[in-house]
Write a structure and sequence with these properties.
CATH topology of the largest domain: Four Helix Bundle (Hemerythrin (Met), subunit A)
Number of strands: 21
Structural class: alpha/beta
CATH class of the largest domain: Mainly Alpha
Strand content: 15-25%
Number of helices: 24
Oligomer: single chain
Distance between the termini: 51 Å
Length: 650
DNA sequence: GTTAGGGTT
């Protein structure tokens, strides 16, 4: 701890904090900011009048950093030093330093807008610009001016955007703390390669043959490319190995890899052996691999974007930002001087790369965010003028307002309704929280809880359909429930009910190729949602997962509740074919996703109306996760849509 | 007739 660079700056940092309500700290990698800032403030006595909070964008970081600080202070985790993440609060009356995810802090500010228990709030890793951090930045700006008791705010960021954050907080002071990285030599390509898989392959082999020992970390965009490159590398390395150079181990690393495969990168290689780790941006911030000396950066990353004009998401391969490229390069300098090979010219880095990653708030649907802000009841708030560091477009905010209006969360004047207030208490997308409230009225809350929980984990449930996995299957695809023809929401419900019938057996999940991690997560979400709904519905007891199964049923009430909740995600079938058009504000032609279990009728046609969970544009525009609904439920929504006047919703 | 970057309440 004593040799962390930040320790020398303690006096300066404390002085600056004493004299200013907000301070921006540029803390480079390895500066020790995450563990030391809170302790400095504690030493100065800031924990006498309240708690020092440190937010993190990720759960694992909140846990691991707090553990470290507890250790350094020689206290038991959960007492003077603790953490709070979803499903787990390890703090006590005695807690003085609290690490928490930014999402948890947002939840807390819902019930206590002044956050009075905190004397200091440190927003760590603000340069990552997560949706939640961006909301917090806006809230902090209001709070430092308005809170009765004294509040200090510290924001840690990266070199390239520190100025901007400082400017946002009325030109507050900006301190730079050096990191503890070894120098990393950067090599640029002469031009962009036609294939970055091939180019990575060539660069990796060059390193293997010419450079001294040290692991190689290669940044690719996704699972597909990773698997391709791993195969090619294995092939080439095998043909090299006839004594000419050291051994090699090649490891893929991405988010959909089972945890036991992910942790393989943490075990050190045998002697005289080089590891090649072929990774997504998971290795940029979430996982740190020791022993890396060489980095190969493709310069690309996959990013999910939302288009408010169409309501459609797409997953695009885009160029990384300068901050990301530097973060990637820095991964080579953790243990000794390293080298970074950028598969693009310096001109591209300088002229084409953005300084900072486009913040998530400008790439997401904002219905949840806007509902959250409305529910805070901030005085004289105009959502369209909320002071964001990087404001989302008016179009995106209006899209959110329209969605909220259609599901009764705000009235025609844009004021939050009592339904909207209840919705904001649920940790769900607005469409699903609206569904729960309606389901409670119709006596099918238990089913809706399951559907909402399943959809909260959806991408982590079903197995990965990559080609290599296809071959690994021990048995042919098994018969999971089929949604009784009504579609994917009903299927998700039925799957969970089966699991419940099998006493939540892990073996059952494995047998059906369902991701165990995902299913356990669903169970926890469902429990949390049940508790909140029981509080809201004052003793409603219809929350048992096994309550509803009574032979054949048509799930009518549940589908009706879904129709109300997804009022802004409705589609009508075209008269003569099986395509649909969305009934939102701008009509889109879309198809039911081929993976859907929705079944056509005897004439081979789908039902006239469906609601969908999301629109995703891949090879074509698709509706993912659809549920058949009835015309008579749709009509009132269409009436409401006609009366809609966006300009009044502001 | 098909998608999977990373997070979070």
């Amino acid at each position: 701890m004593a040799n962390l660079p930040i320790v020398q700056f303690e006096k300066k940092i404390i002085e600056t904090v004493e004299q200013n309500p907000v301070v921006v700290i540029i803390g480079e990698t390895g500066s020790g900011k995450s563990t030391q800032l809170s302790q400095m403030l504690h030493r100065k006595g800031y924990t006498d009048s309240g708690i020092v909070a440190v937010t993190q964008p990720r759960r694992v970081a909140a846990v691991s950093v707090s553990r470290r600080v507890a250790q350094e202070l020689g206290v038991r985790l959960g007492e003077e030093v603790g953490y709070a993440i979803r499903f787990e609060d390890r703090t006590s009356e005695r807690t003085q330093i609290k690490y928490l995810t930014d999402g948890v802090l947002l939840r807390e500010s819902l019930s206590n807008p002044e956050l009075n228990q905190y004397s200091v709030i440190i927003l760590d890793e603000a340069h990552e610009r997560s949706l939640n951090t961006d909301i917090l930045l806006g809230l902090m700006k209001r709070l430092v001016g308005s809170r009765a008791s004294n509040l200090k705010v510290l924001i840690t960021s990266a070199t390239l955007d520190g100025e901007k954050v400082s400017k946002f907080f009325s030109d507050c002071p900006l301190l730079t703390v050096p990191g503890k990285l070894f120098p990393v030599e950067i090599f640029y390509s002469k031009e962009r390669p036609t294939s970055y898989v091939e180019s990575s392959l060539k660069t990796a082999l060059d390193i293997h043959v010419r450079e001294p020992e040290g692991d190689v970390l290669i940044f690719m965009t996704g699972q597909d490319d990773i698997e391709k490159l791993v195969l090619k590398l294995e092939d080439k390395v095998r043909s090299l190995e006839e004594g000419s150079c050291m051994d090699a181990i090649i490891l893929p690393l991405h988010g959909s890899l089972p945890p036991e495969m992910q942790v393989r990168v943490f075990s050190p290689p045998p002697p005289n052996c080089r590891r090649f780790i072929v990774a997504t941006n998971i290795a940029e911030t979430s996982l740190t691999v020791d022993g890396v000396v060489y980095v190969i950066d493709s310069g690309y990353v996959k990013q999910r974007q939302y288009n408010p004009a169409t309501g459609m998401y797409s997953l695009d391969v885009v160029q990384v930002s300068k901050v990301q490229a530097n973060q990637r390069a820095g991964r080579a300098g953790r243990t000794r001087p390293g080298k970074c090979y950028r598969l693009y010219p310096s001109r591209v880095y300088n002229d084409e790369f953005l300084d900072v990653t486009v913040p998530e708030i400008q790439r997401s649907s904002l219905a949840g965010t806007v509902l959250y802000l409305k529910s805070l009841d901030l005085p004289d708030i105009d959502i369209l003028k909320f002071d964001f560091l990087d404001p989302p477009s008016t179009e995106s905010l209006e899209d959110a307002l329209k969605q909220l209006y259609l599901i009764d969360a705000i009235d025609e004047n844009g004021s939050i309704t009592s339904v909207g207030r209840t919705m904001a208490e649920l940790p769900l997308e607005p469409s699903l929280s609206r569904t729960l409230i309606e389901a409670n009225e119709y006596g099918c809350l238990s089913q809706a809880l399951t559907v909402a929980a399943m959809l909260s984990a959806e991408t982590n449930l079903l197995p990965n359909r990559s080609k290599s996995n296809e071959k690994k299957r021990k048995h042919p695809p098994l018969d999971l429930p089929d949604g009784s023809g009504f579609g994917d929401h009903i299927q998700l419900l039925q799957i969970f009910e089966c699991w419940d019938e099998n006493d939540y057996d892990i073996g059952w999940c494995k047998y059906y190729d369902l991701q165990v991690r995902g299913m356990l997560f669903v169970k926890e979400v469902r429990k949390q949602l049940s508790q909140i709904m029981q509080k809201i519905a004052k003793g409603s007891s219809d929350v048992q997962a096994n309550q509803s199964r009574k032979g054949h049923q048509n799930y009518r009430n549940l589908r009706k509740a879904l129709c109300i909740g997804y009022a802004s995600q409705l589609a009508e079938r075209m008269r003569h074919h099986n395509g649909y058009r969305t009934l939102g504000f701008k009509s889109q032609l879309v198809q039911v996703h081929p993976s859907s279990v929705l079944q056509p009728d005897d004439d081979g046609l789908y039902g006239s109306y469906v609601v969908y969970h999301e629109l995703i544009s891949t090879s074509r525009p698709y509706m993912r996760n659809v549920c058949a609904v009835e015309r008579q439920w749709v009509m009132p929504i269409l009436d409401k849509l006609e009366k809609l006047n966006v300009s009044k919703l502001r």
